[in-house]
């Protein structure tokens, strides 16, 4: 099945996509009626199994995820596969496969040089020879080398099959990774993704689909082509000791702003003015969670964070929460959904206030009113949501 349509076919697809987009106007402003807050299986269930594999997505669904989240990158022959980065070195066994040794090279991704093996140098048939590995050193590596790299079609098929088996609607939440980079390679993701969704019957307003991006221009272009709900991701580079966010390249602003010369930072997207701009093309925001609730640490003399709990390490456990921001309230006032990322169970990733229990972090964000969240451990997000719904008495009748 070709995903590189000729001009005539492209015109037909464009017309079909435009038709599919038309209902969006009538629905604009209407809140959807899904169970809230949504549990989004971030990269599947990577707290347990390697990211972006059908096995990891399946586990996320079994743990209660409403949506599974494939990150989308393109192969040389224009297929869309689920990977966190175009560079395959950290999440696959590619470096161990002699047939691909000559593919190793340097490439610029969003203005930063990387060395590795890039998906755009591999056909889908070659991608089929790779197996996923766990990229985080502190997570279980024992499943490395076992699971294949799925296409986005296969992720959608899985969501549909599990929806039938589980008797509940499971959606997909694809992220267009590095849209400008892919455009510059001649492998733009957006129309390819819409064509995949169209073939699946999911290119419309009421489909169980959100498309997300850290860039802005591609979401604005998508708004004119599809009724599918769109989410503007909002990143930053780090959290300063005082809880303010740090903005250092390449995590300071959407890369399309770098290319177009637009000044500013990601933080501009979550001011009331920025949110109003986002509302013109997106249905929600996906902010890094410190935009909603940040944390601060005590300082040592060189300006770095102190090891407040005296365990010999400096991490989130040495931080205390600050009062929540107004971002959720301001976004809701404009009718924007808020889906923060990323929630993780590991002790070192939990601020001191949570007492080492990740449930407490979820409860804090659910109580703040988020409409969903991205979790590496969907089961914990699901259990905490059940507790939240019982606490707020919304569980009756479910
Ligand atoms: Ca993602
Ligand atoms: Ca410590």
Question: What's a quick, concise take on this entry?
Answer:
The chain is of the alpha/beta class. It has helices at residues 7-21, 23-27, 54-62, 124-127, 152-166, 179-184, 190-199, 217-223, 255-260, 272-279, 327-333, 358-368, 378-391, and strands at residues 38-42, 67-69, 71-74, 80-82, 105-109, 112-116, 171-172, 175-176, 210-213, 229-234, 238-239, 245-246, 284-287, 295-297, 319-321, 337-338, 372-375.
Structure description:
The protein has 398 residues and is α/β, with parallel strands linked by helices. The chain starts with 6 loop residues before the first helix and ends in a 7-residue tail after the last helix. The chain is globular. The strands form 6 sheets. It has a 4-stranded parallel β-sheet with strand order 7-2-1-17. The chain has a 4-stranded parallel β-sheet with strand order 9-10-13-16, covered by helices on one side. 29% of the residues lie in helices and 15% in strands. The site of one calcium ion (CA) has 8 residues, from loops.
């Amino acid at each position: 099945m070709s995903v590189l349509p000729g001009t005539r076919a492209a015109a037909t697809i464009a017309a079909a996509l435009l038709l599919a987009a038309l209902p969006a106007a009538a629905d604009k402003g209407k809140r959807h009626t899904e169970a809230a807050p949504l549990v989004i299986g971030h990269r599947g269930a990577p707290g347990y199994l390697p990211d972006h594999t059908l096995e990891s997505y399946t586990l996320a669904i079994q743990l209660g995820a409403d949506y599974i989240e494939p990150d989308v990158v393109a192969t040389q022959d224009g297929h869309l596969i689920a990977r966190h980065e175009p560079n395959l070195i950290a999440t696959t066994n590619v470096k161990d496969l002699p047939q691909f040794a000559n593919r190793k090279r340097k490439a610029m991704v969003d203005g930063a040089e990387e060395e590795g093996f890039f998906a755009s140098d591999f056909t889908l048939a070659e991608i089929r020879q790779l197996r996923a590995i766990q990229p985080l050193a502190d997570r279980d590596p024992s499943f490395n080398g076992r699971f294949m790299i799925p296409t986005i079609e296969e992720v959608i098929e899985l969501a549909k099959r599990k929806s039938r088996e589980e008797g509940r609607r499971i959606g997909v939440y694809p992220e267009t990774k590095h849209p400008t980079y892919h455009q510059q390679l001649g492998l733009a993701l957006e129309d390819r993704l819409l064509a995949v969704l169209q073939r699946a019957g999911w290119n419309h307003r009421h489909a169980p689909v959100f498309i997300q991006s850290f860039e802005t221009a591609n979401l604005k272009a998508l708004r004119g082509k599809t009724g599918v709900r769109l989410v503007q991701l909002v990143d930053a580079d780090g959290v300063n000791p005082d809880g303010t966010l740090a903005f250092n390249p390449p995590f300071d602003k959407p890369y399309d702003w770098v290319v177009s010369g637009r000044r500013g930072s990601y933080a501009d997207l979550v001011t009331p003015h920025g949110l109003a701009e986002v509302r013109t093309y997106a249905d929600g925001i996906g902010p890094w969670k410190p935009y909603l609730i940040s944390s601060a640490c005590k300082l040592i003399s060189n300006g770095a964070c102190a090891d407040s709990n005296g365990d010999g390490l400096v991490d989130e456990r040495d931080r205390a929460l600050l009062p929540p921001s107004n971002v959720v309230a301001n976004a809701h006032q404009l009718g924007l959904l808020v889906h923060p990322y990323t929630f993780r169970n590991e002790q070192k990733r939990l601020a001191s206030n949570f007492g080492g229990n990740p449930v407490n972090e979820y409860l804090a964000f659910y109580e703040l009113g988020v409409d969903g969240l991205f979790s590496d451990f969907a089961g914990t997000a699901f259990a905490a949501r059940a507790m939240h719904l019982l606490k707020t008495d919304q569980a009756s009748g479910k």
